[in-house]
Amino acid sequence: MKPSPTKKRCHAKKIFEALESALATATKKKYEQEIDVRVEIDRKSGDFDTFRRWLIVEEVTMPTKEITLEAARFEDESLNVGDYVEDQIESVTFDRITTQTAKQVIVQKVREAERAMVVDQFRDQEGEIVTGVVKKVNRDNISLEIKSEGMAGNAEAVILREDMLPRENFRPGDRIRGVLYAVRPEARGAQLFVTRSKPEMLIELFRIEVPEIGEEVIEIKAAARDPGSRAKIAVKTNDKRIDPVGACVGMRGARVQAVSTELGGERIDIVLWDDNPAQFVINAMAPADVASIVVDEDKHTMDIAVEAGNLAQAIGRNGQNVRLASQLSGWELNVMTVDDLQAKHQAEAHAAIEIFTKYLDIDEEFADRSGRRRFLHARGTGLCANERTAGN
Q1: Distances, alpha carbon 28 to alpha carbons 24, 39, 41, 304, 350, in Å
Q2: 168 — phi, psi (to 5°)?
Q3: Among residues 126, 220, 136, which one has the least CA distance to residue 178?
Q4: How many Å apart are CA 48 and CA 42, to the nearest integer?
Q5: pLDDT tens readout for residues 136-171
Q6: What are the residue ranges of CATH 3.30.300.20 in the chain?
Q7: Span 12-120: which CATH code?
Q8: What does the pLDDT look like over 342-368, one tens digit per residue?
Q9: 0.85 surpassed by pTM
Q10: What superfamily does domain 198-273 belong to in CATH?
């Protein structure tokens, strides 16, 4: 019996193991009782021997497959619990049913071996950009063929609809790039998942276009995207002589433009990282100018004040600018005008004063001073953007 040809070449060891498993399964079907069988194929001649075996246990629960240690040691005193006792039995002859059973097991084992090879090969590439050729376009996903060095054919990957950019259309034969973000060993279904919409795609493209990132002179700290529309990426330098923002922009904007083109014209804001969360948020709100900012560390929120004329720009279309700044920083951001922020703080301070006078029965003037101090302490550290900029 010869194994059916497959599109992908498995290791000879895997093929022999599949054959042995298939022959063992076919042999078991010849017996009415449930037995354990092992088949051993001679790798050179192709001949095979069949063995019935019993597992050595302390207490037998399945007499057709188990044997006690005491009984096993009658034949071999070196045996221990967990070892096997084997007797050679007659090997199966290949009638129609035996051949069909063996073929089914072989196909299954070869498929399992192929999937295991895919996982082994691509696991180290997880998080990296891969290039594939579109094989099939479905309503919910795209199938890609990715070159596989260790196999005769190509590996198949999937880009789900949510991992594509809006308005992206591909046809069979198109070459596309994406980040391999998941390698799954499940027995069924897709194994390799590629994305073009996640922040990792933006990060990896900059890693390709900006050599200083690969050299670890510049570090990408965070990224946020509204795929196909706009993105923000935060960078810092480990060498004070190098401007990280300028390096990522490139000569005449060449580097950032290359990334933007790959992402369908996505506008990209390159933001300077700062260890001070408030200053980082001010940077992330660009191109809007922040007048002042108040941090509430307990609630992990920041109130951002801008001049009335800058409010629309600070919020962005459909809240895009502040939403991306929030994702980039990890803080909840509330944008308002300078007057609205002042009014909000006055209202909160007044509420604190009322609590002092109502529940603590203290003098109103003292409550006013104590309440305002308590309010300011609870609000955390406020940073005036204009003062911070002037002080640099």
Answers
A1: 6, 11, 17, 74, 84
A2: -80, 130
A3: 126
A4: 6
A5: 998 889 999 887 665 545 788 899 999 999 988 899
A6: 198-273, 277-392
A7: 3.30.1480.10
A8: 888 777 767 766 666 666 655 555 555
A9: no
A10: K homology (KH) domain (3.30.300.20)
